[in-house]
Amino acid sequence: MNRHIAEVSWGRDSLWMLLYVLEHPEQYPLDEVVFYDTGMEFQAIYNNRNKMLYYLAQRGIKYTELYPDNPFLYDMLERPIESKQKGRHNGYGWCGGRCRWGTTWKTQALDRHAAGAVQYIGIAADEAHRRAELTGTKRSPLIEQGMTEADCLQYCRDRGYTWTENGVDLYDILDRVSCWCCCNKNLKELRNIWRYLPEYWERLINLQERIERPFKKYKNKKYGEYGDLRTLQKIFEQEEK
Ligand code: SF4
Fold first, then answer.
1. Which protein residues are within 6 Å of ligand 1, measured from CB?
2. Please, which residues bridge with residue 83 across strands?
3. Residue 19 and residue 23: Cα distance in Å, rounded?
4. Same domain, 159 and 194
C-alpha cells in the first residue's frame, strides 16, 4: 500500500492541511510529515513547527526534515557558477522570480523523498495557477475541501496559531510567508519589513551589500530605475517624513 506524506512549510495553508488531515484519518491516512528547511525561514515558521512536533510525536507520526545539499547562503553568495550571460562568477544571487534555484532544489528533494508515495500538498482552492503542480499521486486536501488561503488562515488562528514576530503577525504585513530573503516580495511587503521587522531588513541590506543585482527592478518618474535595497530604504525614509 502507498505511503501517505504531508508536505508542510508551516505556513497557513500547509498548517491547515496538517490539522485537517490529522482530524480526518479515514479520509486522509498519514504516515509521515515532511518539511524542507531552506534555513531562511522566518522564526515564526520554526515556532509553529516546534509547536506541532509535540502533537506529531504524541500520535507517533514520523517527522522528517530535508535540507538543501549546500547551505542556502553558500549557493546564493559563494558557489562558483559558469553562465552564458555572466561567465564565471560566485553565487546565484537573489532567489525568486525566474531565478528560483532554491525552489528547484526543494521540489527535487521532496519528490525524491516521496517517490511512490501519495503526497498531500498545501495548494489552496483559490490558487488556480498552482493546480498544474498536482501531477501523479499529488493531492491537495485544500482544493478537495474548498479551502481558500483566507479560510486556512482563519482556521489556524481560531485554533491559536499565529505567525507573530516583533508584535505583528506576518500574515498581516506580508502577502505570503516564504523565505525572508525571497525576491518575490513586492514593494508593500518590503516597506512592511523595513517598518515592522528591522532585524530582517538589516539582514536583507547585508545581503544586498554582497549581491550586485538589485533585489527588485522598479521604474517611475520620480526615482527613475531603482530596486536596490539601500535605495528603497532611502525612499521609505523619505515617505515616512
Ligand atoms: S521562497 Fe523564494 S527564496 Fe525561498 S526557495 Fe522559494 S523562491 Fe527561493
1. 38, 95-96, 100, 102-103, 106, 178-179, 181-182, 184
2. 87
3. 6
4. no
CA of residue 76 to ligand 1 center, whole Å: 11
Dihedrals φ, ψ of 50, to 5°? -60, -35
Range of the domain at 27: 4-165
User: Residue 85's pLDDT is what?
Assistant: 82
| Cα dihedral value 72, 76, 78, 82, nearest 10 | 120
**What's the one-letter identity of residue 91?**
G
Q: How many domains does the chain contain in total?
A: 2
> Look-up: residue for cell 478537495?
144
Instruction: Please indicate, yes or no, if residue 23 is contained in any of the structural domains.
Output: yes
Residue 161 Cα to ligand 1 middle (Å): 23
Ligand 1: centre distance to CA 131 (Å):
19
How sure is the predictor about 65, in pLDDT bands with cuts at 50, 70 and 90? very high
Tell me what the pLDDT averaged over the chain comes to. 95
